[in-house]
Amino acid sequence: MVVIDIHDDDWFFATHKVSGKKGFVPLNYVTHAESLELFDKSWYFPTITRREAESLLLTKEEGTFLVRQSTSKPGEFALSINIWDRVHFPNLNDLVEEYKVNTHGLPMLLGNPCPKVLPTMYELSIETKEEWEIDRGEIKLVKLLGEGNFGEVYYVIAKLLTMVIGKWKDRVEVAVKTLKKGSMPDEQFLEEATIMKALKHENILSLFATCSKEEPIYIITQYMKKGSLQTLLRQHKQEESLSIDQMLEFAFQISKGMHYLECQNLIHRDLAARNVLVDDALT
């Protein structure tokens, strides 16, 4: 067959060399004469892409193959073959246990599971959800954590009024900020405490309860074991223990907290590293 005219991208006008007949021929039915030998091969798939080849071979038995024209390097050919060198497991538990003792191509054996981050607690107990003025006798000041212009911050073991799910059971670690006498008017304290109690976000410190019937006033919040971000960054400067990715993560989490406050029509009046607290999971 001799091509007389390329009518468009899909059709040729050609003459049959033996019969002399002329007519239109679909493009995908013809090829150069020198490549006809390949078309006799069952393994030759000239027009399929790499993804199509993978899809075709995926369900076939091991060793099934095909040859196709390369899409990335025109004029060259690519061999695709189905090879099953993977290890299969009936369930996830068997997979984990196997990779603890055999690498199967991994650079190392599986070590310890990643510790899970505990969900954020927003309440000290079910009673403090609505009635968050608690008995001062429920609080035992254990250790002084810091001191500021308005008072002191203590590490505390608080007796829970009812059982809390999880490891806390009948007690929970909290931080207690004590307000110095006269440092804040009672009305202002109550207003700010009411606002804080309503905030519920993983990147905003949770206010659990207050003891405001007598001086000094107690503000009971989450206990963040790593202390302030300022302290952590200063330690990092000496030890170089924090990566750039970790510090970017701090910035991201702070931004999430500030965005939440903005959505509540609130602003933080003193956002600084000394006022950002960090827990064991560096969150």
TrEMBL record:
Protein's recorded name: Tyrosine-protein kinase
GO molecular function list: ATP binding; non-membrane spanning protein tyrosine kinase activity
PANTHER family: TYROSINE-PROTEIN KINASE
Catalytic EC class: transferase
Taxonomy of the source species: Eukaryota, Metazoa, Ecdysozoa, Arthropoda, Crustacea
InterPro entries (UniProt xref): Kinase-like_dom_sf, Non-receptor_tyrosine_kinases, Prot_kinase_dom, Protein_kinase_ATP_BS, Ser-Thr/Tyr_kinase_cat_dom, SH2, SH2_dom_sf, SH3_domain
EC number assigned by the record: 2.7.10.2
SUPFAM superfamilies: Protein kinase-like (PK-like), SH2 domain
Domain SH2 intervals: 43-124
Transmembrane segments: none
Keywords: ATP-binding, Kinase, Nucleotide-binding, SH2 domain, SH3 domain, Transferase, Tyrosine-protein kinase
GO term, biological process aspect, one: actin cytoskeleton organization
UniProt xrefs under Pfam families: PK_Tyr_Ser-Thr, SH2
Catalytic reaction equation(s): L-tyrosyl-[protein] + ATP = O-phospho-L-tyrosyl-[protein] + ADP + H(+)
Domain Protein kinase: 139-283
Binding site residues for ATP: K177
Homology family: Belongs to the protein kinase superfamily. Tyr protein kinase family.
Domain (SH3) ranges: 1-35
